[in-house]
Design a protein that fits this description.
This protein is of the alpha+beta class and 210 residues long. The protein folds into 2 domains: 171 residues, no CATH class; 35 residues, no CATH class. The protein contains 3 helices and 8 strands; from the N terminus they run αβααβββββββ. Helix 1 packs antiparallel against helix 2, helix 1 runs parallel beside helix 3 and helix 2 runs antiparallel to helix 3.
Length: 210
């Protein structure tokens, strides 16, 4: 019983974990349903995907099997079958769940009708979990950001079948400015909002006293 409870708790924890961590935004990406290959522009229907429900079903089968084996002995074929099927179901569903939330480096494209998402800096996998074939319409990146061109890079026009992925890896270098115009860039200016007041500035970028 304790083992089953641990399995259920682990499954719920995995399923509810966030799939992305807070990062600096590099821009945005828009995706929509793909109509490529669908005769007459037929509507795309979402395909149900495995998830926490399979974990619950598998754990329930495993529990029933263990109870039957305890009650009727190890030779009880039905109990043994239930236990084996339950264990297999839990581990099979765990493969999908782990991929969906692994290391918080996956962004799920989960809306079969399309959506616009924020693109964080750093390396991320964009996984199509919508159950429908999607196409990336556009990628808008900030002027101070650039792509490291990872293998399988997400590009405008990329088509993703259900559970297929593409990848992004953006690096941003904010421009350094001289806000007060005193000749010291803000990143080395001790007084970035106080420029020359008519008496010059010292070696740290702060105005000299009158």
């Amino acid at each position: 019983m304790k083992t089953i409870q641990k399995l259920l708790a682990s499954g719920v924890a995995l399923f509810s974990a966030s799939s992305a961590v807070a990062q600096t935004s590099a821009g945005s990406l828009t995706y929509t349903p793909s109509l490529v290959g669908l005769p007459g522009g037929a509507a795309v229907e979402a395909v149900p995907l495995p998830g926490i429900l399979l974990v619950i079903i598998g754990a329930s089968l495993l529990l029933l099997g263990v109870r039957a084996l305890r009650k009727y002995g190890r030779r009880h074929c039905l109990g043994l079958l239930l236990a084996v099927c339950g264990t297999a179901t839990v581990f099979a569903s765990g493969t999908y769940i782990q991929r969906a939330v692994a290391v918080a480096a996956i962004i799920n494209l989960g809306n079969s009708a399309g959506d616009t998402i924020e693109l964080p800096t750093g390396g991320f996998e964009l996984l199509n979990t919508s159950g429908a074939e999607l196409v990336i319409d556009s990628i808008n990146v900030a002027s101070d950001c650039s792509s490291n061109a990872p293998a399988g890079e997400c590009l405008a026009g990329t088509v993703l079948a259900p559970l297929e992925s593409c990848f992004t890896d953006f690096q941003c270098t904010p421009a350094v400015v001289d806000s007060d115009g005193d000749g010291f860039l803000d990143n080395v200016d001790a007084c970035p909002a106080q420029g020359d007041q008519g008496f010059g500035v010292d070696g740290f970028g702060c105005p000299n006293p009158p």
